[in-house]
Amino acid sequence: MEGPFIRIEDTGEVVPLRPEITTVGRGRGADIRLTDPSVSRLHAELVRRGPYLYVVDLGLSRNGTRVNGRPIARRVLDDGDVVSFGAARCRIGGVPREDFAPEVELRRAAAPELTRREVDVLTSLCRPALSDEAFVAPATAREIADDLVVTEAAVKQHLLRLYQKFRIPEGTNRRTRLANEVVALGLVRPTPVVPPQRSPSSAAPTEGHTAAGSRRAS
Predict the structure, then answer these.
(1) DSSP string covering 63-108, please?
(2) Can you name the CATH fold of 116-185?
(3) What are the beta bridge partners of residue 93?
(4) According to the CATH classification, is domain 5-110 in 3.30.1340.30?
(5) How far apart, in whole angstroms, are the C-alpha atoms of residue 127 and residue 194?
(6) pLDDT for 195-209, tens place per residue?
(7) pTM of this prediction?
(8) What is the Cα–Cα distance from 2 to 16, expressed in whole angstroms?
(9) Residue 42: Cβ within 10 Å count
C-alpha cells in the first residue's frame, strides 16, 4: 500500500489515510469509525502535510489520545507509532523515515513563557493526568486552589491567562485540552508520591495502653 495508512489492532483492518485530513471517531460520519465506547463521536484528526503526518486530539473525550502510551494534544507521527484513541489501539504505517524528530522542534517553538505561579497551576492541573501513567480528568479549579492554598478566584484568573497563552479556544473540556497540550509539550513531569511518615508516638503504645495490657494479661 502506497502512502500513510493506519491499522486497527482489534480488527486488523488497514485504512489508507486521505490526502489532507482523516477524521477518527465513533460517529457514523467519521472517516475511520471505531466502535469502542471510550472513543468519542469525533475524537481526533490525522493530518497530512507533504511527507509528514500528525495527529490532533479534538479534546471532546475524557479518555484523550495517546502516542506510544503518552497523552498528547498534537504530535507528528513516525512509521510504526502506536496511537490510542481512548482504549482503541491503532498502528501507523507508510510514513517516510527521517533522521530527526520534527515534533521536538515544533514543541519547543510552541511553548509560551510562563511565570513560576503559572507553572505551579499547570503542575497541579495535570497531576491527576500523570498519575499511574494514565490519562484521567485534570484537577478542578477548587482542587488546584486547595493544593496551592490560594483562592479559587485566583486560580480561575491564572487559567484564563493560560488558555490565552496556549491558544485554547472556548468550548467544552477546556481544562482537559489545556492539560493535554501541556503534557504533550513536556512542560510538566510526574512527581513521586511520598508515603506519609508514621510518627514515633503512633508506632509505640502509650504508657496507659501498656499498663492496661499488663492488667488484662494478669
Answers:
(1) T-EEETTEEESEEE--TT-EEEETTEEEEEE-PPP-SS-HHHHHHH
(2) Arc Repressor Mutant, subunit A (1.10.10)
(3) 5
(4) no
(5) 14
(6) 555 555 544 444 444
(7) 0.50
(8) 8
(9) 16
